[in-house]
Amino acid sequence: MNTKSIAHSGMRHRRAQGFTLIELMIVVAIVAILTTIAYPNYRDYVIRGQLVDATQGLAAVRANMERYFQDNRSYATVGPFNPPCGAAVIPAGRFNITCVSGPTTFTATAVGAAGALTGFTFTVDQADNQVTVVGPPAPGTFQGCATAWITKTGGC
Strand 130-134 and strand 95-101: pairing? Predict the structure, then answer.
């Protein structure tokens, strides 16, 4: 009997199942590319959500200071009445709000207190002049503005 006919008669060769190294490397490369695109966008999205704490906190401080001024005709301490934003630091999410007030003026400032938010500073005064200052370690996609509070990437 012929050995070739015995070897091929009842047995079929099957290709090994699984992924080749090249296929696996292509998948890894695609995942790496998607990650480098998605992560910065996700980080900016999370930061934008946290910036709202500062702007809402400052808006509340400003409203409280205006009510105090209507009652006392001064932003400073009047008799036993202290202004809403005295020397104490007011926490607002991951921001700390401080305030300086005089008889006819006040300035409230929210400074980021954690991670990438430490580069953000928001300010408001009695005339509702809003200022945003952005510095390191905040992402470069955020920019400051001398006339508004910035809560998303881009400029004024």
Answer: unpaired
CB-based burial label for 72 (10 Å; 0-12, 13-18, 19+):
middle
Taking phi first (over 0 means left), then psi (-120 to 50 degrees means alpha), and beta for anything else, what does residue 93 get? left
Gyration radius from the chain CA atoms: 30
Instruction: Name the residue ranges covered by the structural domains of the chain.
Output: 19-134
Q: Which sign does the torsion angle of CA 60, 62, 65, 70 carry?
A: negative
- SS3 of 47, please? helix
As given in the structure block, the two tokens for residue 131 are: 């200022």
Structure tokens at 78: 């009047």
Residue 100 to residues 46, 75, 88, Cα–Cα distance (Å): 30, 9, 10
- Distance of alpha carbon 146 from alpha carbon 124, whole angstroms: 11
Query: Does residue 10 sit in helix, strand or coil?
Result: coil
pTM score: 0.78
pLDDT tens sequence across 115-129: 889 999 999 999 999
